[in-house]
Amino acid sequence: xxxxxxxxxxxxxxxxxxxxxxxxxxxxxxxxxxxxxxxxxxxxxxxxxxxxxxxxxxxxxxxxxxxxxxxxxxxxxxxxxxxxxxxxxxxxxxxxxxxxxxxxxxxxxxxxxxxxxxxxxxxxxxxxxxxxxxxxxxxxxxxxxxxxxxxxxxxxxxxxxxxxxxxxxxxxxxxxxxxxxxxxxxxxxxxxxxxxxxxxxxxxxxxxxxxxxxxxxxxxxxxxxxxxxxxxxxxxxxxxxxxxxxxxxxxxxxxxxxxxxxxxxxxxxxxxxxxxxxxxxxxxxxxxxxxxxxxxxxxxxxxxxxxxxxxxxxxxxxxxxxxxxxxxxxxxxxxxxxxxxxxxxxxxxxxxxxxxxxxxxxxxxxxxxxxxxxxxxxxxxxxxxxxxxxxxxxxxxxxxxxxxxxxxxxxxxxxxxxxxxxxxxxxxxxxxxxxxxxx
Length: 439
What we know:
Number of helices: 13
Distance between the termini: 25 Å
Shape: globular
Strand content: 15-25%
Helix content: 25-40%
Number of strands: 17
């Protein structure tokens, strides 16, 4: 049994003082005891908070981050400004020569960086399945296995989400030449899942789910087939999808079927707590309420959404509706959960002209409330027993140390970590009972 002693620990019941944490050999917490004596436990120098699940990652894009910040040749011309769609072309170009060795190397470096900043699990939304020309590798699961190996090398928990991608636009428009690395038909995708399933048997640090890329890349009947292929293996496994990220996506969907993307998704699938709707930025009020009422998690990636000019999720109204949220680093222009939470709250402040927009109520710590929300939502989205410091959950936690102030109130420490981070650092990241960061 592994034992730690912390002066403070943030649990589902709030802050506990003088806490003894105990975990079994498998890395699962077996006891969380307040007002305890340290005894021979390992002493942790700081406040312990749950490790943050990163619910949305495209690992290979880490190598592109910061390399697409040059204005295009038509910058400033009418209709010529850069957008998500021009960035996507740069991303496709980067993929042209990326091989499995490169995918594994990039992912390993990325996952280590996540651990150093306080992420303890990742949802890998993985769509680079084939060779650059579109030909399958001898092992069709080659690149997926490389990501699993990278996670194991780094020591981070992973929910692998192989992407179903077939179309180049709504209604089954043909995919483009530069999308050929992503493509499957329903039978090929089912075989991919079957080939991967043994990698997850008996592994508490892994979960297999799927990710129909988007409604423009997976027409409704194909989306249903992809979910059915997953259900044949595990009917409780997570399902993630990009939806309503860009105004053009909403316009194209309306032009094709007369429905907005979230409306179409709810007409197509039984969206419930196993689903994560990534971005969901451009919503009608009815769509927003539908997501919140379904129990699905809204997967928010504030730094990427800002970088790509996507827009701002209606977080205040959505949380008022009772909706669940989690955060992801997506394209990895930032690998810091504190900064994602800072952007999440500060974005709402900018558009409302108010402060503490996403606080849980009068006197509540904005940082603590947001941290607990995204840990709960991230755990649900990744389909793993993580996201909280309590018996039965994985021993995934972060130690926050105060190098420059008064740490008497741990809520202030969390608020400083998120909103004024100078002097607060991640002193240790523990995953499954093993210290994995910072490097």
